[in-house]
Amino acid sequence: MHLEKLQAFVISSSDYGESDRIVSLFTLEHGRLKGFARGARNSRKRFGPALETFARIDLQLNRKDGLSSLRSADVITLYSGIRCVLGAIAHGLYACELVECLTPEGQPLPRLYRLLAAYLERLDSGHSDDADRRLFEINLLNILGYRPSLQRCGRCGSTFDAHGALMQQGGELVCRFCAVTGRQITSAALQGLSSCLATGRFGLVAFDQESLQLAGVLIDESLANHSSRKFKSLEFLQQAGGSDRS
Q: Between the chain's N and C termini, which has fewer beta carbons within 10 Å?
């Protein structure tokens, strides 16, 4: 089997047997992969701390469908600034779980890889707020093709007016001519999310409290609609004080 050298984030890991570990990876070259690290819990030389969640690593593996075989891994960064702050840990775990749950296996997504890298670097620098979280989420949805239309009605295509839009089940946004009920999402909230897409850089978009809360309602609904299960890390994030959802 051909040995490949890849760059990756560890997005989750679990112990297997007495000494092995199964690792979910998000690689630059092949997107999401799952790997089996034989003896990882005993071998400090081959793996060390490199298989900790949200570590960024260089690794060597024999790639195959299902479960690849990890041969070795070297740490690029462990994001030590994240690991000593509870809120930052919660945001980092949540971001990794979104990537694991929503991305297809074996499909390269270099834009999403760079987005995750930028978000973890932002968390590592001491910033872990909800505006950054929502910027990460809306860009993730956009890259994967799941983003709701923020400017035009999803049914008739008309441009939203100053009143904003009505959110339907699944996160669809429609105008008042196409629906008479639904959660109102203000134009300010929609503009904030559009600004997140326009910049792609963390720390540059400011929301007022109402807009941030409504943007969160829309994104949470959209994410839930595209996931087959609940996000386990979301409860931890909420307990850590990292959720604006009412």
A: C
